[in-house]
Amino acid sequence: MVPGDANPVPHPFHVDANGVDRTPGPDKHPYYAQFAASESGIVPVVRQVGGEWLPALLICRYDDVREVLRRQELFSRAAAAHADQVDVSGTMLGMDSAEHAAVRGTVKDSFTKPAVSGLGDTVWAAAEAQLAVLVAKNGRADLVGDFAVPFALNVISDLLGLPEPDRAQFRRWGDMFMGSGDLSRAEAARSAEEMGGYLWQQLDQRRGCPAGDLMTRIATAAADQPVDVQVKLPLSLIVGGWETTASSISTFVYLLRTRPYAGHDYAWDHLLKHPEQMDGAVAELERLHSTSNGDEMPRRVMADVTLPSGARLTEGDIVIPSHDAANRDPRVFTNPERMDFGRDPNPHLSFGYGPHYCIGAHLGALEVRVALALLLQELPGLRLAVAPDEVRWKQGHAILGPSELPISW
Ligand code: HEM
């Protein structure tokens, strides 16, 4: 099936009709660029949710995607819960309007640009500490397990104030929580329950004995929220904050070490010579190779509406604003498939837009920039320890990225 066919296209595009992932890797399916450039930019798709194939409309033009993300009174997340592949009910991601603002409001001040820029030294120190563990591996290690995952997990856990010895179990819970598919839906419920029990205990401790950390803030500021909402607030910060960031670090290192750029065999060599281009490079990698599967956040249309492109939607439609398609809209990004570290402006939507704009966007981007800068500085000879096509990529997971990245230096 191709764009323009009357038949709905199975979605995600890289999974075939039998649920088998055919093209794992960091590159987006070519449909995204085709759909973004198309006149209507609205693509009927079918997605497997809880064993059923559900219809939805994928929104692909940049202005339309922003409109859907911006107007939550017209495009409701809460009313689309049945169409979610990952169960995010009770978290910010599953709420609308006043309810959403109340929950987000309890922690948003800790993640503003000024608040995060004050964390630069702490994040650098956490990266250095983890790099020491990696370097002790004697010339060969797994960038995912030995560096990216523990580093990102430690940053968010330190901020929340969660004890170090408890962190090992977060990864198991997180993997179960973010899995998509039938089996993993049951596992996700179990992990949310286990992790919720643990986080409730932590909140309870802070109420008796305030500790000046983010958990203490949640324990007091969100005390009037239902228990489920209170525990899912730190849960969404941990799960949303570490897997995405760790996956971005590993995916971007893979790309920098395998893709040519500006006359260099590898973009890595270009950045070694031009470290001042780090911010532009990270923004461009985020645009082209977003690790957050934004296409899994459907919304329900609450009243008939016409989008900026002129496309009409009907009350009750389930729509999916596609960040990956919007990031390739040639009306906004000149030559969109070209990787250009100097692209300015680069208003990509890989952190979303509007009320659900990623609360951790500044923190996540800081962590990615720090990790890449430190690796370039300390391990300039870093390279993949296996052939690029031997790298294994996560399957059936809402966050995209390699499951392991063997490196040597
Ligand atoms: C590079 C890393 C990251 C990427 C690519 C990413 C991506 C995203 C995206 C696309 C959304 C919006 C989903 C939508 O449209 O509905 C989102 C929301 C969210 N992100 Fe991130 N994120 C990253 C890092 C973080 C970090 C570090 C944290 C935690 C501190 C975090 C916590 C959240 C939360 C709690 C939401 C829900 C916000 C709301 O619904 O109001 N993320 N993220």
Give the tags.
409 residues; alpha+beta; Cytochrome p450; six-stranded mixed β-sheet; globular; binds protoporphyrin IX containing FE; monooxygenase activity; Cyt_P450; monooxygenase
Describe the structure.
- The chain has about 400 residues and is α+β, with helices and mostly antiparallel strands.
- It has one domain (about 10-409): Cytochrome p450 (Orthogonal Bundle), CATH 1.10.630.
- It has helices at about 30-35, 60-70, 95-105, 115, 120-135, 145-160, 170-180, 180-210, 215-220, 225-260, 265-275, 280-290, 325, 360-380; strands spanning about 10, 40-50, 50-60, 75, 140, 300, 305, 310-315, 320, 385, 405-409.
- Strands 1-2-3-9-6-4 form a six-stranded mixed β-sheet. Strands 5-11-10 form a three-stranded antiparallel β-sheet.
- A hairpin with a 2-residue loop joins strand 2 (about 40-50) and strand 3.
- The termini are far apart.
- The structure holds protoporphyrin IX containing FE.
- The site of protoporphyrin IX containing FE (HEM) has 28 residues, from helix 10 and helix 14.
- The site of protoporphyrin IX containing FE has 28 residues, from helix 10 and helix 14.
- Belongs to the cytochrome P450 family.
- This is Cytochrome P450.
- It comes from Micromonospora craterilacus.
